[in-house]
């Protein structure tokens, strides 16, 4: 990914506290599933049960509730972020423009149309759609990035605030990482809870965050095909998430496609949970023994929006 560096404010713990007031007033806490049924002791934070099927609704809602109402809002998305923005637009009663590429998922385009937001089709890829959305924002609108935004990051961090009320003692929280909005938010939350560790998990086919953390800045990496497509891709140049992950996340690990598939099957067959590939990577890392967990092991199941044919194929082994 290339382009000019946008000036994005780095969120603080004060932003997290403000986001908690917003989110706790609109969304009930998601369940913490601790029914191990004889398997490994992995607690599941079920963000897959959010109204849109993904944790992305948290950051979207916080952004729309916080950006001044007289400022137009625009975003680009090919999936869960756009659905979260559409849901938040309905909840807050404010207009939002969502730009999607012409080859975006027909099912998700249909869902966005049904939500009543201003839907714009442009380009043949997410990069094309994002570039157009950023151009629209130059006319005075606020661009809500799916990860490189202080309100989005703070909104995602409210998962940690819910865990504060659900778990005592030492805790190791695992989440998937692509652009790093969730990992950065949980990392900031972790800085307020000394007995917590945060581990971010990437698919081997897309390691943009670990490459950026090693280099100290965004670097473009080759991205392969992965079941965890929700966290695949390169990172916006200058994204504030890179330094937040570097400073506040305890570890970055990778998982293979085989391990991701095994995690999706484990969740469905053993825990009764439907998860998309990106929602299962934390579980994959724990099942593969790649994390030295301290205290309660919590994997954030970030989403359930997996195509039925894909799920059928994965479950068939």
Specify the CATH architecture of the largest domain: 3-Layer(aba) Sandwich
Q: Tell me the radius of gyration.
A: 18 Å
Mean pLDDT, all residues: 94
What is the first-to-last residue Cα distance? 34 Å
State the helical fraction. 40-55%
State the name of the first-level CATH class of the largest domain: Alpha Beta
In DSSP terms (H or I, runs of 4 or more residues), the helix count works out at 12
Summed up, the domain count is: 2
Largest sheet: 6 strands, mixed
Strand order within the widest beta sheet: 1-2-10-7-8-9
Shape: globular
CATH topology of the largest domain: Rossmann fold
Structure description:
It comes from Amycolatopsis pithecellobii. This is Pyridoxal-phosphate dependent enzyme. The protein is of the alpha/beta class. It folds into two domains: 209 residues, Rossmann fold; 76 residues, Rossmann fold. 42% of the residues lie in helices and 15% in strands. The protein has a six-stranded mixed sheet with strand order 1-2-10-7-8-9, with helices on both faces. It has a four-stranded parallel sheet with strand order 5-4-3-6, sandwiched between helices. The longest helix has 17 residues. The mean pLDDT is 94.
